[in-house]
Amino acid sequence: MRKYRRQRFFIAIACGALFACCLWAQDKSWGGLNQRLLEYYRSGRYTEGIPLATEALQIAEPAFGPNHPNVATSLNNLAEMYRPLGRYAEALPLYERGLRIGEATAGPDSLLVAATLNNMGEMYRLQGDFTRAEPLYRRALAIREKGFGANSPDVAQTLNNLALLVAAQNKPQEAEPMYQRALGIYRSVFGEEHPLVAACMSNLAELYRTQRKFSLARPLYQKAIEITEKNEGPNDPRIAMDLNNQALLYAADNKPKEAERLFQRALGIKEKAYGNESPTLLTTLDNLGTFYASLKRYREAAPVFARELQIAEKNWGEDSPELAGALGNLAGAYRKLGQSEEAGKLEARASKLSARR
């Protein structure tokens, strides 16, 4: 089977990425909204979370004052709802204002500042803007090492996310020791069966997979799945991430039956957890459609890509530049099926949207 363009899941460890409460919390309605937001964030219900996050910010500003750390918390939380939806232009000013407030009130070396830097770095990483992301991650890492010590889980979180960044820059020799150090910290602090151990282990496995070190990747994927199944059950969405990446491994290893089975299981788990129109389905749909196309199974690829586009349009809007990839996927399948007119319309739309990036 020929190689094909594909996406994959890396787990940006997000402990503390969304703040449920701060030390200064005084307003019960504000605190209650943040607790609900945390539930929405963990379950991938980002679009539903935006009105709650907006309401929490509107409560915080008059209740605590416009420059209070709780306002910074609410700004961060609203940005964290926009970021997974690809609404980066709306997230950025919220992060930036939250960072200014955090630096001025909690201090430049505070937990609030470090977490906001980490989240901003994640936003830039997802956009492929590694130049902006890297100094944010490294500053967050320095703050956490100084404030919490070298073996803190907060340090491990930023090490993991920085490793994601350098891995995406094709620097596996630099990424691997970061993952190993983060994994060692999590094992030492939490033990072998903790979800954060599984998450970091999964990322290390994915690094090995991209280097075609399949014999190193397979047992790590399997162990990560076992840990997650033990802690959360067989249908936890984190298992879907590992199944997706295992499927990519089998596809690269010319084992299409195993790959298809894992892609389908991953998709089923995410549908059950998040619903049939959640943006969390997009990566697996993209991978499954591209997998079918790589096997010249275009009649199966086209409806998968069409569904990918439909979900992206619903969550990002029909004029979002983020649709360009899904449009190109569907256009490519239509061309292979001889549907040139439909393909041309999709390609023209993708080109127009790409020009707006």
The helix-and-strand class reads mainly alpha
Helix content: over 70%
Name of the CATH architecture of the domain at 1-144: Alpha Horseshoe
Give start-end ranges of low-pLDDT stretches: 1-16, 20-26
CATH C-level class of the domain at 1-144 is Mainly Alpha
Number of strands: 0
**Radius of gyration over alpha carbons?**
21 Å
Notes on the protein architecture:
The protein has a domain at 1-144: Serine Threonine Protein Phosphatase 5, Tetratricopeptide repeat. 75% of the residues lie in helices and 0% in strands. Helix 11 (237-252) packs antiparallel against helix 12 and helix 15 (324-336) packs antiparallel against helix 16. The chain starts with 27 loop residues before the first helix and ends with a helix. The protein has 16 helices and no strands. The chain has helices at residues 28-42, 46-64, 69-82, 88-105, 111-126, 130-148, 153-168, 172-190, 195-210, 214-232, 237-252, 256-274, 282-294, 298-316, 324-336, 340-354.
